[in-house]
Design a protein that fits this description.
InterPro entries: AB_hydrolase_fold (IPR029058). The chain is α/β, with parallel strands linked by helices. The protein has eight helices and six strands; from the N terminus they run βαβαβαβαααβαβα. Helix 4 packs across helix 5.
Length: 194
């Protein structure tokens, strides 16, 4: 199993899940985009993606070999729901003080802010990436795809997740949660699917 996390979704926020799988944090280090596709293409069983990680999976859906995919808080184009100016403000905040920027983001999405982690400057590339358009083409597939839709998300609206669900021909579970879903709940969903 591979878990492709969201922006600043370090192992510290999902400590148990990160012990049980290959855990990848988008843009955690330089060269991420060149490397991640090869890693997720090798997985033949289950790939889980949260937020930015889900978007990266959607972009490569037709090239993946996994039989089962779980997409948590997925979206096609972030800027359809979040103004580019808000992303630019976040980039400027990150440039001024990247640790504070991550803590502020975590606070907004429901993650404990007392966690300690190293924040790499390459995370800025992830914010820039969120402004890019994804020209998703519907593809016929035989995968079992589950969309987890947080209904109390403070970043993206529920219709972002429903749009993904409708266009990828999957199943959907709605959960009363902010953008970050508590690890104990997520573990039950993921490991019940293994």
């Amino acid at each position: 199993m591979i878990f492709l996390s969201g922006w600043s979704g370090f192992r510290e926020i999902y400590p148990e899940i990160s012990k049980k799988c290959k855990y990848i944090v988008p843009f955690e280090d330089e060269g991420f985009l060149e490397r991640y596709l090869n890693e997720i293409k090798q997985e033949e069983d289950l790939i889980v993606g949260w937020s930015l990680g889900a978007n990266l999976i959607i972009r490569e859906l037709d090239r993946l070999n996994a039989k089962r995919i779980i997409l948590i808080a997925p979206f096609f184009n972030f800027t359809d729901y979040v103004n580019k100016r808000a992303i630019d403000l976040m980039i400027r905040s990150f440039e001024r003080n990247r640790e504070k920027c991550v803590i502020d983001f975590w606070s907004k999405i429901g993650i404990r802010t007392d966690l300690q982690t190293k924040v790499s400057h390459s995370l800025k590339d992830g914010l820039i990436f969120l402004k890019e358009r994804n020209n998703f083409n519907e593809v016929y597939h035989k995968r079992n795809i589950l969309v987890i839709a947080p209904t109390n998300d403070r970043i993206l609206p529920l219709n972002a997740f429903i749009e993904v669900y409708k266009r990828i021909f999957g199943s959907i579970i709605k959960i009363y949660s902010n953008h970050y879903i508590e690890e104990s709940i997520l573990e039950r969903i993921i490991f019940d699917n293994i």
